[in-house]
Task: inverse folding
């Protein structure tokens, strides 16, 4: 069984970015999500602390 090189379509030809090229964007999106989640949790913790003091 051999591969016919004339039937191969590359990601460049299809206009698809390679998964490796998308890694940075995915990492940034995940870091943003985690940062937002951490800020929300800190805000909730501060709010609970303020309520306990009253």
Result:
């Amino acid at each position: 069984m051999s591969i016919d090189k004339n039937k191969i379509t590359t990601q460049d030809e299809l206009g698809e970015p390679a998964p490796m090229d998308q890694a940075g964007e995915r990492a940034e999106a995940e870091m943003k999500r985690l940062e937002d989640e951490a800020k929300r949790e800190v805000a909730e913790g501060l709010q609970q602390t303020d309520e306990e003091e009253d």
About this structure: The helical segments are 11-14, 19-53. The two ends are 77 Å apart (CA to CA). The longest helix spans residues 19-53. The chain has a mean pLDDT of 89.
